Amino acid sequence: MKIAVYSAHEFEIPFLREANDDGHELHFVSEKLNIQTVGQAKNCDVVAVFSSDEASKEVIAKLAEFGVELITTRSAGFNHIDLKSAKEWGVRVVHVPEYSPQAIAEHCMALLLALSRKLIPSYERIRTYDFSLRGLTGSEINKKTIGVLGTGNIGCSLIKILNGFGCTLLAYDAEVNDKVAEMKNVNYVELNEVFAQADAISLNLPLNEGTKHIIDSAAIEKMKNGVILINAGRGALVDTQAVIDGIKSEKIGGFGMDVYEHEKGFFYEDHSEEVFKDDLFARLLTFKNVVVTAHQAFLTETALKEIAETTMKNISDFAKGRIPENKIEHHQ
Q1: pTM for this structure?
Q2: Taking a C-beta distance cutoff of 8 angstroms, is the pair 200, 256 a contact?
Q3: Which intervals hold domain D-isomer specific 2-hydroxyacid dehydrogenase NAD-binding (predicted)?
Q4: pLDDT of the chain along its 332 residues, tens only?
């Protein structure tokens, strides 16, 4: 089959080629999929997209016109795909439901440690040959109470790590994960109890109507003074302006983010030579107690290998007339 791979990044292309055991024809497109670039999918059977692509109603209509039968997204989330339109046009949609949850859990831990021990200010100071320690007193994670919102595979992996640090864990999710419930030092509690008791909170929830802006000004007001927030889940779990206000009032003692609610259009790209126009994001970068990474929590060799292998298996299953096991149930 001929596949148009949109938003093809240098870091993932070798893994996709390595996983292409069935010899599909891969056409790598560096641009994002949108109505302007959809023409590059002509004569293709499959389109492979990334979370930054736009498989909108208009785009899917064009893909169907070109004869595209399958959209496979190289991500767990699929809110960048208009599933209703795909169903109407008879285009199947599949995804990568999970890939190395350990990678994202470890990144959450890295952000928490960087904030707790003030590693970024320390690094910046040393680059100017200032080896003084004023203002660098940090806090230990041991014996702290940590809230984990979302106890799927990623949240479960993070809880295992935090248990090793000797933390008390407060878990919150709409559904109890039996594996998590059986772990030591973990208690499932109501959301407001997490807010009231946690010294740090990690967001590992999916994004939906019930979780959008789950961290807003009202939630922040209920938290302990100096709380550390970590978001490596979905950008819109957090009301960014509310977090900025919380940092300014010192209610929030640190914010580590790998995702941003308005990241579409600039994450994964180099804008270093441009006038940066997102004032909200620019304001975040002015705080010394904010650590930002550009949606890279997934970016490990293990995760990239698993994403590529699952993506190519989805395509091969479809090519062989099998129903891909990773079809999106909301669509089929």
Answers
A1: 0.91
A2: no
A3: 109-297
A4: 999 999 999 999 999 999 999 999 999 999 999 999 999 999 999 999 998 899 999 999 999 999 999 999 999 889 899 999 999 999 999 999 988 999 999 999 999 999 999 999 999 999 999 999 999 999 999 999 999 999 999 999 999 999 999 999 999 999 999 999 999 999 999 999 999 999 999 999 998 999 999 999 999 999 999 999 999 999 999 999 999 999 999 999 999 999 999 998 888 888 999 999 999 999 999 999 999 999 999 999 999 999 999 999 999 999 999 988 899 975 44
Task: Provide the number of structural domains found in the chain.
Answer: 2
Per annotation, catalytic residue among 74, 95, 234, 309: 234
Are residues 195 and 229 in contact, defined by beta-carbon separation less than 8 angstroms? no
Q: Is residue 327 part of a domain?
A: no
Residue 234 appears among annotated catalytic residues: yes
| 49 found inside a domain | yes
Distance of CA 275 to the CA centre of its chain: 26
Q: Is 263 a catalytic residue?
A: yes
Bridge partners for 203 per DSSP: 149, 231
CATH code where residue 209 lies: 3.40.50.720
Q: Is 283 a catalytic residue?
A: no
Helix 119-126 crosses helix 101-116 at what angle (to 10 degrees)? Answer: 70
The active-site residue out of 12, 263, 306, 309 is 263
State whether 90 and 56 are in the same domain: yes
